[in-house]
Hints:
Layout: E1 4-9, H1 10-15, H2 18-28, H3 35-51, E2 58-65, E3 70-78, E4 81-85
Antiparallel strand pairs: 1-2, 2-3, 3-4
Helix pairs in contact: 2-3
Amino acid sequence: MKRAYYSNSISQFISEDKDAILGVLTSASDFSVEVNQRNAWLLQITQLKSLLDGINGSIYFEFAIPRMGKRVDVILLIGQVVYVIEYKV
């Protein structure tokens, strides 16, 4: 079972085209993607590409939390630290 709409290493995420990432997020969604959601994802992608440049780790967008039935906007695994990021756009 795939827990995230999009997952990759941070270095691959940074080098990947933002529209390709948006396409993966959109096609993974079980619901229709409204303009506000699309714009929120684009903002997140743009900000995180800038902020994470040069950092090693993994990134997960729309990560499903087991047994809670909720999703987190972004999870970052950097070293032994798990960062949970929730955007309010």
